[in-house]
Structure formats: structure tokens, C-alpha cells
Give the backbone structure.
Amino acid sequence: MSQCQFDYRNRVVFVAGGTSGINLGIATGFAKAGATLAVMSRSQQKVDTAVDVLKGQGSHAIGFAADVRDVDSLKEVFEQVFQELGPIDVLVSGAAGNFPAAANEMSANAFKVVIDIDLLGTFNVLRYSYKYLRKPGASIINISAPQAFVPMEMQSHVCAAKAGVDMITRTTAMEWGPEGIRVNSLVPGPIEGTEGMKRLTPPGSTGRQIVINSVPMKRQGTVEDMANAAMFVASDAASYINGAVIPVDGGWGLGGAGQLGQGLADMVKSEK
Ligand code: HXC
Ligand code: NAP
């Protein structure tokens, strides 16, 4: 899939969790379209590598090592982004954690850690960037997952967290719409080569075959598919799209996605 034509020159794009996989793919799409980028995640090494990748696209890019669970660090990061780059035009919130685990076996802390990163982390990123968003005009994109609306075995934590993320999308869309801020969720399907798919469908797992068979388009998505969707949603062409939860999944969420749960259950059982 090639990149569509968008013009994001003179726009500031912030991507939380933007140092690998889908989120770095989205950041790279915006960088190729001329945007100025700021990315953050926990690992300084991943931040440095991602900033190099984005600069390689000719973008002005800066990075921060911070955890979306740490409100004080987030406040500092957003203040610094504003001082260096000015108001944020596009905010992508995509930090997340995932592992397959049975609800009757994972610890309370294992469930909590995913809620803390995905759900509370999304709230924190929106809440503490709010002051620095361009008003009117900012576009927020929360990265959800099919698990938000398709129950999946071994994913009780992720299903609960991402359903909450989509409700943050809808409520902030209502609260912030009057100020000219749009908030939407993008729901990736199975995106090839990503950490998420490595964790849920490692080579040789039955899940891997289930995924290909259960996507109506009969292929996994690419990070470029996600970047194109993000650039569309953030653009003026989507200026009346607000509070929407938009699958970018080849039709996987129409019914097929739930089948992966059986593959995950088999995998967890075989690891015992
Ligand atoms: C059961 C597990 C576990 C596992 C960790 N835990 N892995 N429990 N099965 N496989 C438990 C630990 O024992 C601990 O509980 C608790 O979770 C917290 O673990 P920590 O390692 O201390 O947490 P932390 O260092 O904060 O790391 C968070 C993490 C980690 C989520 C556990 O995997 C991570 O950093 N992931 C980020 C990258 C990632 O997951 N990317 C994929 C996103 S894909 P106790 O009780 O022992 O303290 C995605 C959707 C994909 O989100 C959808 C595809 C369709
Ligand atoms: P990934 O490469 O692991 O991306 C997760 C990013 O979040 C990384 O940059 C990671 O970097 C960062 N991160 C994790 N915990 C963080 C924290 N506490 N604070 C700050 N940053 C944190 O995974 P991915 O598979 O591309 O997934 C990206 C997004 O797409 C996630 O929201 C995921 O739920 C969603 N999604 C993925 C798929 C898929 O097919 N892969 C499908 C549906 C939805 P650090 O380790 O440096 O912190």
C-alpha cells in the first residue's frame, strides 16, 4: 500500500507511544507529509531511534522518554513541546500493553497494568495535553483495538481497557467539540510485523492462520494503512467526523476477530 497525498507542513503532531510499530508508522506518515513530530515512550533508546527515523524523512522531530502512567512527567513533556514547537495540531494516543492471559489465572496487578497503560494512560495524555492543543482545529486520534467491541478469550484486560478508550473518545468529543477539537478512535485490525501480532500470533501458532482466514480482505494490514487513515481523519476532509470509532481492519471486526480468542486459549494452554 503506497502513501496517499496529504500536506501537513507547518503542523505539529504528537504521538504518545510513537516509537515503534503502528504508532511509529503513523508518525512516519505525518513526517513524510511535512509535519513536525514529537514522540514519546518509556525507552530512551527507542525514542532516539524513532527520532532518527523521523528526521530521515526530512521532518523536524523531537522525542521524550516518559511513561503515560506518570502524570508529572507528562505535564513536563507537554510544556516542553509547547515551548519548542507551539500548539499541537494532531495528538495520537497509542501507548499500550498486551499479553494473552486467562482471567482466572492472571494476577490483579496484571489486569491493572493494562488498564493503567491503555485506559488511564489515554486519559492522562488527553487531559494533560488539553491546555496545549490548537483551539480551534486540533484533531485527537486514540488508538483502539477490535477487542473494544469483540469479546476475545485471554484478552479480558485489553477488552475492558480499549472499550474504555472508545468511551473516552466519545465523551471528550462531546465536551471539546464546541472548542473546535475533534476526537476519534482508529481501530487497527491485525497489522503485520508489529509487537502486538508477535505477542498474539507468534510463528507456528494456530492464531496466525486463524487471523489470515478470518479477515474478509484475506491479508493483514500495514502500518501505511494506519498512517493513511490517521492522516485522513486529522485532515480538513474529515472536518465533520467527531466521536467516531473507525475500524481500519479489512472487515475483521465484523465477526472474524473473535475467532482469534480460541487460538490464544490454545496457546496459553500449550505453554503450561
Ligand atoms: C500473565 C503477566 C504477563 C503474562 C506480565 N504479566 N506479562 N501475567 N501473563 N504474559 C504480569 C506480571 O507478572 C505483573 O504482575 C504485571 O503483569 C505487570 O508486569 P510488569 O512487567 O511489571 O509491567 P510493566 O513493566 O509495566 O510492563 C507492561 C507490560 C509489558 C504490558 C506487562 O508487556 C509491556 O511493556 N508491553 C508494551 C509493549 C506491548 O505490549 N505492545 C503490544 C501492544 S498490542 P505481578 O502480579 O507479578 O506483579 C495491543 C493490541 C493488539 O495492545 C491487538 C491485536 C489484535
Ligand atoms: P508496540 O510497537 O509495542 O507499540 C506500543 C508503543 O507504546 C511503544 O512505542 C512503546 O514503547 C509504548 N509504550 C508502552 N507502554 C508505555 C507506557 N507505559 N508509557 C509510554 N509509552 C508506552 O505495539 P503495536 O502492536 O504497534 O501497537 C500499537 C497500538 O496499536 C496499541 O495501542 C495497540 O493496542 C494497537 N493495536 C495494535 C494491533 C496490532 O495488530 N499490532 C491491533 C489492534 C490495536 P516503550 O516500550 O518504549 O514504552
